[in-house]
Specification:
Keywords: DNA-binding, Membrane, Plasmid, Transmembrane, Transmembrane helix. One of its GO terms (molecular function) is DNA binding. This is Type IV secretion system DNA-binding domain-containing protein. It is built from 28 helices and 19 strands. Helix 2 runs antiparallel to helix 3. The chain is elongated, with a radius of gyration of 35 Å. Among the domains are: 46 residues; 171 residues, no CATH class; 62 residues, no CATH class; 41 residues. The termini are far apart. It is an alpha/beta fold. The relative contact order is 0.11. The strands form 5 sheets. An 11-stranded mixed β-sheet has the order 4-3-19-18-13-5-12-11-6-10-7.
């Protein structure tokens, strides 16, 4: 039976000029010999001379001087690696030039500074090292699914943990495997207790996560930016009309109320939660009760908030020390809403006022539900377990898992943008605001200063890219923070932020690690433009032999401009292979693999659940401690409660027994404990007289212009350990320092 063969008009594999066969090495003979002598093949020269001497002993007098000179050259040649020398080499690094101390414009080799191990050069087998300063210039890591981005990220982060630093990773399409992997990394260096996890995966019903109060430590400007990121995401439609009008009204309301919320948080102990924000904004009556009237300062003003302990809405009168000027923008908003007038009666009789206010805050409902219900296990907290200031400045390990499959892409992107905004405002204080003082104290010894860089990884950044990331990358190097952004293709980033903003964002990082990429449209164009071009010598063509039909190259070479990174090379990369660009160098790399394989049992380290107590509602014992009445005489002490005595007795009996942990727990707490009749802690104060509560609403006192700011801040930090409200503490310390300054001036005058 005849078989019809398939017709193929296109080129086949054997037609393709592979392996750079068309490129020619046109270097001089001396350059090629020098390259061999300084490379891994330098030993072959000595072996060849030794073989020649054994074969012809008469040539010893000729080969011995050559061998000696060659050996001396090889042994005294400077050690140069493709990037940096490792710091433990303790040699001068020609790739780290520094200015000559006495000759201007002259550079000399600097010390070896390589601290981060990336892998090996595939062509020479040499190690690839970078310094902490290099990593602070940021990294991009593009690669398609399955190439091994996650393992590459883990290997990079292992460098940071090995140096005692921490890390932060935000995964736009995370799973619980990420948490297991990071915990395995931390376990290698004994850092499990430093791991914090913000787990937004809730579809399985297991809501295990550390709490995060995104609004707990930011200033009013930072709070307003965070809230605008959550409640008013960027409008990509560019529409105007009534939608734009109410959007601007919502913007002004949030910015005005941010100053009120921050003051109540710092001075009255009211935590800023989504429920408290909702209580303040949902009805315009709450705003009217808050602002009162401008003409009557003594009018009773009421602040609405949500009490986490009682799980219900509460109100409290504004403290006397509250600056009424903070209410002016809120009052202006109320008066400009639907023509509100207190002379027209209550708000119930002014339908237009309520209607327009509902248009302003109506768009907040989805964010309120997301933060209060869906992610309430994370955001409903008084004092959070995750504080970004603590994460950055104490070098802890944070994992943020965004739910890519559970949420709408816009909702997921909003959560990611909120995370990036929180990162920005957590780093902002390290830039410093004081312009007067010692340079070492204010600049050199910043809170972010450390011998190692702190890495932040944004994996699958295209899913939550926001405009603030480019600003953070521009300033993060000064704060000793290195940012790594990982993505599959640039098309998603173009759609999220626009090509004009994404191109400079991707052009800023110095280290570029290209993995295997499949997108042949915008990603290929961006990659080839990033790699640039180079001049090479190529074979212009072939000549055929008329008798044998064999092709041979012509006896000349042409110079042509080609792409430095071949698209076929990028597509053929396998796991662990990459092409690195750094400071104009292109290196075909075999990446370092740390072997992070999650296994075993994992658990989140629980943190203490703390709550702030609103002003005036704290326990008398706490007020006694703040009042300095915590040093009673011996007569005030009582014996411990009966329950403690029984527990200690049971512990003494099980210490020497060989039993399981479960059996020990049952022996310790299985039987009923006697009821406690006394409170040992409260008994410390029973012999004291009646406690007189100090006045809490003190007038605000500012430090004199010529006061010692450094001493003032140090004393405020010390006094804050007593859990006093920050505003009262600052006023009290400022009053003391101002009095001391006036006394000193009078003494000098005498």
């Amino acid at each position: 039976m005849p078989i019809v063969s398939r017709r193929m008009d296109g080129p086949q594999d054997h037609h393709e000029q592979r392996a750079g066969i068309a490129y020619l090495d046109t270097r001089t003979l001396g350059a090629q010999i020098r390259d061999i002598a300084t490379g891994p093949g330098s030993a072959f020269g000595i072996l060849a001379l030794a073989g020649l001497t054994l074969a012809v002993p008469a040539l010893t007098a000729f080969t011995l001087p050559i061998a000696g000179a060659f050996t001396a050259y090889v042994l005294t040649r400077p050690l140069v690696l493709p990037l940096r020398l490792p710091a433990n080499a303790r040699l001068k690094d020609r790739n780290n030039p520094v200015a000559h101390p006495r000759r201007q414009g002259v550079e000399i080799p600097g010390p070896a500074t390589g601290d981060w191990f990336l892998g090996w050069d595939d062509n020479t087998g040499q190690q690839l090292w970078l310094s902490n300063d290099d990593m602070a210039m940021h990294t991009i890591l593009p690669g398609s699914t399955g190439w091994g981005k996650s393992q590459t990220i883990y290997s990079l982060l292992c460098n940071a943990l090995a140096q005692g630093s921490g890390c932060m990773i935000v995964d736009g399409k995370g799973s619980n495997n990420l948490v297991f992997s990071v915990k395995m990394m931390a376990r290698r260096w004994g850092r499990e207790a430093d791991v914090r996890v913000i787990n937004m995966l809730v579809s399985s019903g297991d809501r295990k996560s550390h709490t995060w109060g995104a609004f707990s430590g930011v200033n009013p400007e930072g709070l307003s930016e965070l809230l605008l990121t959550i409640f008013l995401p960027e409008d990509k439609s560019g529409g105007g009309g009534s939608a734009s009008y109410f959007r601007d009204r919502a913007d002004s309301l949030i910015r005005a109320m941010s100053y009120v919320w921050v003051w109540m948080r710092d001075h009255a102990g009211i935590p800023i939660t989504s429920e408290s924000i909702r209580a303040s904004l949902s009805t315009i009556q709450a705003l009217i009760d808050l602002v009162g009237t401008r003409s009557d300062p003594s009018e009773k003003r009421v602040f609405s908030y949500y009490d986490l302990a009682s799980q219900r809405l509460m109100t409290m009168p504004l403290p006397e020390a509250f600056p009424l000027s903070l209410l002016d923008p809120v009052r202006d908003y109320v008066n400009e809403t639907g023509g509100f007038s207190s002379g027209k009666g209550g708000v119930d009789s002014q339908d237009k006022v309520r209607e327009q206010h509902s248009y302003v805050v109506g768009g907040f409902a989805r964010a309120f539900t997301q933060m209060g219900s869906t992610l309430g296990h994370i955001f409903r907290c008084g004092l959070p377990g995750v504080d970004f200031h603590d994460i950055f400045y104490n070098r802890r390990i944070l994992v943020v898992v965004l739910p890519s499959l559970e949420n709408h892409p816009e909702t997921n992107a909003s959560l990611g943008r909120m995370t990036i905004t929180a990162q920005r405002y957590a780093l902002a204080p390290a830039l410093g605001t004081s312009l007067e003082g010692d340079y070492v104290d204010l600049v050199v010894n910043r809170p972010s200063s450390a011998p190692t860089v702190y890495p932040i990884v944004h994996d699958e950044v295209g899913m939550f890219l926001t405009r603030g990331l480019d600003v953070m990358m521009a300033q993060a190097r000064e704060l000793n923070v290195g940012i790594t952004i990982s993505f599959q293709e640039v098309g998603t980033m173009y759609a999220a932020l626009g090509k004009d903003r994404v191109v400079p964002l991707l052009g800023n990082p110095k280290l570029k690690i290209f993995g295997q990429i499949e997108d042949s449209a915008p990603t290929k164009e961006w990659l080839e433009s990033t790699g640039g071009t180079m001049q090479v010598s190529v074979l212009p063509g072939y000549e055929s032999s008329p008798t044998l039909g064999v092709y041979s190259g012509v006896d000349r070479a042409d110079i042509r401009e080609v792409k430095r990174i071949s698209w076929s090379d990028v597509q053929s990369l396998r796991n662990g292979q990459a092409i690195i660009l750094f400071r104009g160098k292109r290196i075909y790399t075999r990446l370092f693999y740390a072997g992070i394989k999650p296994a075993g049992y994992n658990r989140l380290h629980p943190l203490l659940t703390l709550h702030t107590v609103p002003a005036g509602r704290d326990h008398p014992i706490a007020r006694a401690i703040r009042g300095g009445q915590d040093i009673p005489g011996r007569a005030a002490h009582l014996a411990p409660a009966a329950s403690l005595e029984v527990i200690h007795d049971r512990m003494a009996r099980i210490v020497d027994t060989d039993a399981t942990v479960r059996e020990d727990i049952h022996a310790l707490f299985g039987a009923e404990l006697p009821r406690a009749d006394t409170q040992p802690f409260a008994a410390l104060f029973q012999s004291l007289g009646a406690y007189t509560s100090p006045k809490t609403d003190l007038p605000v006192t500012m430090l004199a212009p010529k006061g010692n700011v450094a001493l003032y801040e140090a004393m405020v930090a010390l006094e804050a350990l007593n859990c006093d409200a920050q505003g009262q503490t600052r006023s009290r310390v400022a009053s003391v320092l101002n009095t001391l300054a006036r006394t000193t001036v009078r003494r000098k005058g005498q």
